[in-house]
Amino acid sequence: MSEILLDAVDLTKHYGSVEALRGASFQARAGEVTALIGDNGAGKSTLVKCLSGAEQPTSGRILLDGTEVHLDSPVAARRLGIETVYQDLAVAPDLDPAANLFLGREIPRKGLLGKLGMLDKAEMRRQAVTEFEKLGVTLQSTEVSIGSLSGGQRQSVAVARSVAWASKVVFMDEPTAALGVRQRGRVLDVIKKVRDKGIAVVLISHNMPEVLSVSDRIEVLLQGKRVARFAGADTKLEDLVAAMTGALVQEEAA
Ligand SMILES: Nc1ncnc2c1ncn2[C@@H]1O[C@H](COP(=O)(O)OP(=O)(O)O)[C@@H](O)[C@H]1O
Ligand SMILES: [Mg+2]
């Protein structure tokens, strides 16, 4: 069993009078896929936002490698090796895949031209092709704008970008929701490759067969709290459904 890499303890998040998280705990381990499941409104996206710096919890503690961290922004989280593929896909449609991969981390040209703000596009393209290939994502051309790619290819670029930079944790909020069956299989293959690099992958998905096929562990949120957790291999679909609806509550999971 691998070590706990990310440990969220008793998080609350209030939006005005709405309590999106009510003492939620969550753990993810290096080299494992942890699924985070729950009904609509359970607090999954809010939890991911708090753990990736997009939102700050109202109270609670977040530990990375055993050290308490304060994720004040997505940039702060990225510096610590935490990347996120958000539910509402965040790629820049007018840029090509390489430019998307390096968005916010562009490589400058060497020497004076670089100091004048010129970018080394050839180098970024070379690295982008390598990164995409590592993940089994082949694009016909790296010079087309993202907007002209299919939904599946766009999603692959968003996934490739986050996993190329992640060194510790990748959150994927419904990464396959908009995809067809074949593309879905590709994203699941990418998830397994990233896990095998020793990264903690956190998968949010409504697709229970998908969750059961790829997850090493499953944590269940209900009304802003963790109500159950399971080891992936020997979990039954009925147990997941029971936990999501509140019919099965494990006291020790809170
Ligand atoms: N920015 C926000 N402002 C107000 N309420 C929010 C906001 N974001 C989420 N909520 C509320 O918090 C609860 C949890 O939402 P969310 O985290 O999106 O759940 P999930 O991703 O599990 O569907 C819901 O009741 C939702 O309406
Ligand atoms: Mg959500």
General description of the model:
The chain has 254 residues and is of the alpha/beta class. The protein has a single domain (4-95, 161-253), classed as P-loop containing nucleotide triphosphate hydrolases (Rossmann fold, 3-Layer(aba) Sandwich), CATH 3.40.50.300. The protein is built from nine helices and ten strands. A six-stranded mixed β-sheet has the order 6-7-8-3-9-10, sandwiched between helices. A four-stranded antiparallel β-sheet has the order 2-1-4-5, with helices on one face. The longest helix is centred in the last third of the chain and has 16 residues, at 181-196. The site of magnesium ion has 3 residues, from helix 1. Magnesium ion binds at residues 44-45, 87. GO terms for molecular function: ATP binding; ATP hydrolysis activity.
Query: Beta-sheet strand percentage?
Result: 25-35%
From the 3D structure, determine the CATH topology: Rossmann fold
End-to-end separation: 21 Å
Overall number of structural domains: 1
**Helix run count:** 9
Radius of gyration: 19 Å
Bound molecules: adenosine-5'-diphosphate, magnesium ion
GO molecular function: ATP binding; ATP hydrolysis activity
Domain ABC transporter: 6-248
Keywords: ATP-binding, Nucleotide-binding
Pfam family, one: ABC_tran
